[in-house]
Design brief:
This protein is α/β, with parallel strands linked by helices. It folds into 3 domains: 6-74, Arc Repressor Mutant, subunit A; 79-147 and 257-286, D-Maltodextrin-Binding Protein, domain 2, CATH 3.40.190; 150-256, 3-Layer(aba) Sandwich (D-Maltodextrin-Binding Protein, domain 2), CATH 3.40.190. Helices cover 42% and strands 26% of the residues. The protein has 10 helices and 11 strands. Helix 5 (93-102) crosses helix 10 (270-286). The protein is rod-shaped, with a radius of gyration of 32 Å.
Amino acid sequence: MHSSSLSIAARTLCRTQPAISTMIGNLEKELGLTLFERHKGRLTPTPEAYFLLEEADTIIERLTRTTQLMEEVKNLTRGKMRIACMPAAAMFFMPHLIAKFVKDRPDVDVTMMMRSSSMVQDWVSSQQYDLGYCERPKYRDAYDVELIPVKIVCAVHKDHPLANKKVITPQDLHNIPLASLYSQHAMTELLKRTFDDYNATYYPRFELLNYISAFEFVENNLCCCLCEKLSAASYKLYKSGMGNVVFIPFYPTLTFDHAIITPSHKPMSQLVKAFKESITTYMEEFIQD
């Protein structure tokens, strides 16, 4: 139909003319329609042939487009990701990571929702989201877990007497007001045990849901705060390095376990796998001193 000649069509398709004639005959037999009128060795397309040509061109165009799209998916330049994230990481870390990941991927769409760690775990368990970032979760068969230990540091006001120390210990914080996560939190319980081991009094003057909120109290020199380095890095980014809070290493070394969780019973796309692998690498860059 495109070449207007059986011989040209044969050369284009790398077939013989008899083979092309047979293919046309078989197609007409299968459809129960006459596609070409034969007259003195010439083929004249019927209206049915023009209709079939239009439909075939549409199908071929769609197949070509689908092939191109799948090639983009394979090359991680097209697709969708649904990410659920706890507040501590959703404020700065995760948006910065997503922006970096999709910068050269204009056809990658992302949904990121901020919720508590327990809600993140529920969403990933129910396969509503492709990936979750949360505090260390309890074991569930519904998701796989990759832990990311983040070191604990001490946040103090730059004019606080402890601000000049190279390392802060439980004895240094004996009976000093602290901003802390709520009393039942695993991190708070770990700190209490650690202070007990060093015969120091743990005094949580302010109990909060996250460390980002705690920095306002430290800014006003009302307390100190033992926090993980991701929140510390977020504060530095927010304040552009001009804040009143400084962060000092804490001894003994303690870690706050973050976790990447993904649905156990749902295969990850190649795009989500690549993003998941980038989290740990970017974490090291984000929290570096």
